[in-house]
Amino acid sequence: MRLRPDQLARHLRGPLAPVYLVSGDEPLQREETLDAIRAAARAAGHQERIVLHADSTFDWGELRQHQQSMSLFADRQLIDLRLVDRPGTPGGQALLDYAERPNPDAILLVSGSRMDREAMRARWYKALEEAGASVQVWPVAAGQLQGWIRARASGLGMQLGAEAAAALAERVEGNLLACAQELEKLRLLVGEGEPSLDEVLASCGESARYSPYDLVDAALAGDVGRALRILRGLREEGVAPPLLVWTLAREVRTVTAVCEGVEGGLRPDAAMAAAKVWERRKALVTAAARRHRAHGARELLALAAAADGAVKGATRDRPWDVLEALVLALAGLKIFTPTTYNQPLDA
Predict the structure, then answer these.
(1) Do 196 and 168 meet the contact criterion of CB atoms below 8 Å apart?
(2) Last-in-domain residue among 97, 117, 137
(3) Structural domain for 6, as ranges
């Protein structure tokens, strides 16, 4: 069965499943999910914890040994299997075998980073899900972050106002672990109740952490201010411009393909399917496609090509200037055209 993170607590109050599979790239929520399962397992008598790190050198025979061994003592086992890499063929078969014949004296807890579609279609993944429960942990979207902060603060006995939550969200955007730490610190400094905006600002530091994918999502959504803030944050963190160009250009090509498909007579959903747009990204790509249409998308392609030339040193343009122009244009604020750039080196 599949469980959402918010369904897990209720599930853990009942009989535990023999197998749990937890995946996701958001470290705070993933670790809290794993901690909750471990605590429930201990309470159910699984006091002996065996930790296995399944990297590329892991011997999957170890899992088979624990699958077949019965507990000689009163304490039952929690097999904490951490997927450092994808299991591959031997690991997939070992997990499939375990799911078909789980150890009655043990709970198998499998954890790893976000699973893509290919992994979720694998036989081992489906078998583990059918034998027990899977929990996929997703990052908190930007539009939901303030609500998450206020709920987290409430759990600590604090009531954050809208302005205070917005201020904290701006400073820790993209880093839930830092946000949780800031709330804990704020609780120690001001106690329970409703901290003022000034108290929140005085307590928290800059803890924002962004990825190139956050930049792309903000630009596709048309959120100019956030997109620029992320771009500048990535620059301060020392992210290489070629990585940003590659990420942005890939998304621009997708938007262009959708726009040209619609222009050619396809329905929007058919154009999305032809461009291989994931279900979770359809809303963002649709928003960008409506904003630009085919002609505007082709201009974005030309601007992406100019950014590529700038980061490769083929023109006199400054890479971060062209990147900023591309981000603004993708977000819907067209200030510069492609002809503004591509200045030859000998000009």
Answers:
(1) no
(2) 137
(3) 2-137
Strand partners, 53: 82
Residue 222: which pLDDT band, with cuts at 50, 70 and 90? very high
If asked whether residues 250 and 280 sit together in one domain, one would say yes
> Is 346 a domain residue?
no
The answer to whether residues 321 and 301 belong to one domain is yes
Task: Quickly state the pLDDT bin for 174 (edges 50, 70, 90).
Answer: low
Strand 106-112: give its sheet, edge to edge.
2-3, 133-137, 19-24, 106-112, 77-83, 48-54
State the pLDDT at residue 71. Answer: 57
Q: How far apart are CA 321 and CA 317, in angstroms?
A: 7
Q: Which two tokens stand for residue 262?
A: 């619609």
**Which residues face 50 on adjacent strands?**
79
Both structure tokens of 229: 């803030």
DSSP string for 51-106? EEEE-TT--THHHHHHHHPPPSSS--EEEEEEESS--HHHHHHHHHHHHHS--TTE
Tell me the per-residue pLDDT of 78-128, one tens digit each, with 9 for 90 and over.
889 898 878 888 888 988 888 888 888 888 999 888 887 788 888 888 899
Q: State the average pLDDT over residues 191-219.
A: 79
Q: Answer yes or no: do 132 and 7 share one domain.
A: yes
Output the pLDDT for position 343. Answer: 55
pLDDT (0 to 100) of residue 138: 83
Give me the number of domains the chain comprises.
Answer: 3
Q: What is the DSSP letter of 160?
A: -
Residue 61 C-beta-side C-alpha neighbours within 13 Å: 2
